[in-house]
Design brief:
Strand order of the largest sheet: 1-2-7-8-9-10-11
Largest sheet: 7 strands, mixed
Radius of gyration: 24 Å
Structural class: alpha/beta
Distance between the termini: 52 Å
Number of helices: 12
Helix content: 25-40%
Amino acid sequence: MKELTMDILHIGVDDHDLDLFEGQYEVPNGMAYNSYMILDEKNAVIDSVDQRVSSNWLKQINKNVDYLIISHMEPDHSGSVKEFMERFPKTTIVASSKAFVMMKQFYGEEYEDRRIIVKEGDTLLLGKHTLRFIMAPMVHWPEVMVTYDESAKVLFSADAFGKFGASDAKEEWACEARRYYVGIVGKFGMQVQNLLKKVGALDIECICPLHGPVLKENLEHYINLYDIWSSYRYETEGVMIAYTSVYGNTKRAVEELKNNLVANGCPKVVLTDLARCDMAEAVEDAFRYGKLVLATTTYNNEIFPFMREFINNLVERNYQDRTLAFIENGSWAPTAAKIMRNMFEKSKNIKYIGQDITIKSAITPDNLKELQELASVLCKN
C-alpha cells in the first residue's frame, strides 16, 4: 500500500512470476496490476487485480468499501471482483452497461441489486471527491471507461498510459510503454485520439494507469507520445531493417545495406532478425521509425513464416504513413517482394521507395550497387 495523496492509496500488486502477459508478450520484469482506493465519506476502490495475486490485494483493504469502480473487464483487472464482492457484501459496483454484460459472461453475476450503471459525463459524489466518468470504448475493449477525480485532479486512465513491468522495474518508461501500446492498443488509434480529445480539456495533475507507474511529473511528455502513437506518426528518424535468412545470403545483404546507411549518415539503423527476436519488440520498432526495409526469401511459393507473422502484426495494427522498401531472395522463382507488397494493400499512405532488389541465391556485384543506391535514396527521403 502506498499513499498517492492523503486520501488516495495505491493498493496494486506486482507479479514477478508471470512469464507471458496475455499469453504472448514476454515480461522479463514482471507485471504490475494497479488498483486504487479513495478514502472519503464514502470509500471507493478503483479496479481489482488478476486472480493470480488477489490474496495480496485483498489484504490491503482493511476498511469498508462503498463502491467498486470497474474501468475494464479484462480478467487481469476484474479477476478478483467475485471474491471481493463476497467479502464486502455492502459494496455497490459502478461500471458501464457493457461491463455488466461481460461480468455475467466471465463470473456468472451481474449484481442487479448492487450496481450503478454509468454513462458519459455521469458523476459520483464520495464527499470531498467527485468522480466523473468518461467512456473510452475500444481503448481497448468496448466497455472501457476512465475516471476523473475533479477535486484531486487525478485521471484513473484504465489501460491507457500503462506499460509492461512490475512497479519496481528499473527501466525507461517509454520503451515498455511503447511495446505495450503497440501490441495491445495499437489497432485502436482513432479511439485513443477520441479519448485524448476528451481528457485534453481536463486539469490533470496525476495519471493513474492500471499497469506501470503512477505518472505525476512531465505529463505533457507522456500525453505527447500517446498522441504520436495513436495518430500513427513515426516517433524517431531512422530505418528499421527486418529480415529472415535461411543460409546467410539475405543476412549479408541487409548487413551491407546497414553499413551503407550508416556511411550515408542515417541517424538510426535498427537491424532485426525476425527468426530470433521478440516479435513484439520488432513490431514496436516498425511503428517507432519512419522507414522500413523488409528482406526475406521466397519459401514454399510464399514468404518465410516469420516475415509473414511480422507483416500480419503490422497490418492488423493499422500500420500506415510509412516508407517501405523490399529485398527478396530466391534461387529459381523469387516472388517474395510482390507477396510482401500485396500484404500492405489495405494500409494507408504507404510510400514505396527505390526498386525492389532481387537476390538470386547469393549477392552479386550488381546487388551491391543496388544496395548502395537504396541506402542513398532512403537517406535522402
